[in-house]
Amino acid sequence: MIRVESVDKQFAGRPVLDNLSFTVPDGQITALLGANGAGKTTCLRIITGLLRADAGRVLLGDIDVAQQPMAARRQLGVVGDREGLYERLTVAEYLTLFASVQGLAGKSLERALDAVREELELDALWLRRTRGFSQGERMKVSLARALVHRPRHLILDEPTRGLDVLAARLLRRTLSRLRAQGTTILFSSHVMSEVAELSDRVLVMAAGRIVGGGSPVELMRESGCDNLEDSFVTLAYGAAAGRPRQEEPA
Ligand SMILES: Nc1ncnc2c1ncn2[C@@H]1O[C@H](COP(=O)(O)OP(=O)(O)OP(=O)(O)O)[C@@H](O)[C@H]1O
């Protein structure tokens, strides 16, 4: 389970996250929605330990991300900016490096590499250097890097941005399989059809706070709308106009 508890973050004195609290249950896919600038990426970066909160804390199970960064890293897979590939390395070399950093060696390293190679259909890319990779190819390698150590928690920032139909489908299939294995998954997206299809739970952010949360059906009921996109607009932009509601931490 991921717990975000009373997190504040300011940039240059401007509040971006404002006493933000929510939980992400195990074995479910949770989508984080919000208008541009609502604070989604900032929130995900704090969960993954890339940014420090000004106040509050983030727990992965019992592990405090800021207090126990090494332990947190072993529990986390992160798919963020797909630009971070080392272009001189082949996919095999790159994934070996990341798996080693996570403490894998010998037979368990080999097994971990074989598993992501098969699951993410990486055969054709395996011995290629990542320079010049397409968006879809980069996503596959980023996802393989995030999963190679079998983390309990997976965080993805707009994972289907720029992907074609087949690559997006592979990603969705992979997320569904991971959910069935009990992985806790949190992803941000602007694509409502994908959110409606994939998510067990949706969190709507506006101005650094949670303004709605529940299953897609619950959100539609709460907002009195018959589709997720209208619910999102009602909750996110209605709230931005001045009626925020903070979800209680579970
Ligand atoms: N390093 C930074 N320095 C200053 N301001 C920042 C920084 N990072 C984010 N911000 C600001 O914080 C606010 C929230 O940004 P964030 O990237 O978290 O939003 P988002 O919800 O992910 O938006 P989008 O949907 O456009 O990706 C924005 O106003 C952004 O300009």
From TrEMBL:
Ranges for domain ABC transporter: 2-232
Source species, domain of life: Bacteria
One Pfam family linked to the record: ABC_tran
UniProt KW RNA-binding keyword: no
Keyword ATP-binding set for record: yes
InterPro entries linked: AAA+_ATPase, ABC_transporter-like_ATP-bd, ABC_transporter-like_CS, ABC_transporter_ATP-binding, P-loop_NTPase
Alphabetic keyword roster: ATP-binding, Nodulation, Nucleotide-binding, Transport
MF term (GO), any: ATP binding
Homology family: Belongs to the ABC transporter superfamily.
Record protein name field: Sodium transport system ATP-binding protein
Species: Microbulbifer donghaiensis
